[in-house]
Design goal:
By secondary structure, this protein is an all-alpha fold. Helices cover 49% and strands 0% of the residues. The longest helix is centred in the C-terminal third of the chain and has 18 residues, at 81-98. The chain is extended. The two termini are 54 Å apart.
């Protein structure tokens, strides 16, 4: 049983060797729009003042009536004991993160 499994595993490994060849390229030959991180990073260096800025999210779409009601409920609950307890817990977590042992 063990020998048969080894033979099957060896055959499967050898069968994979006949696949399509992989193209290996040096990173110096890759253009700025190609590669693994082409969508997020590039080889181009830009000055901070030349990077285009995105429009603020709040200016993109006004709040709907349901969202305004939800925001109003959230504001009213800001003085509740549960909200204060949550804020204290959050402050403690932040302190703990900034002051590790």
């Amino acid at each position: 049983m063990k020998k048969g499994f080894t033979v099957v595993l060896l055959a499967a490994g050898l069968a994979g060797c006949g696949g399509t060849p992989v193209e290996h390229r040096n990173y110096h030959e890759i253009g700025p729009g190609e590669g693994l991180f082409a969508d997020t990073m590039s080889w181009e260096w830009r000055r901070k003042d030349t990077i285009p800025t995105a429009a603020p999210a709040s200016a993109a779409a006004p709040l709907s009536a349901a969202e305004q009601d939800e925001f109003k409920k959230w504001q009213e609950s800001a003085g509740s004991p549960e909200r204060r307890e949550f804020e204290e817990w959050r402050a403690w977590q932040e302190w703990k993160r900034k002051n590790p042992k």
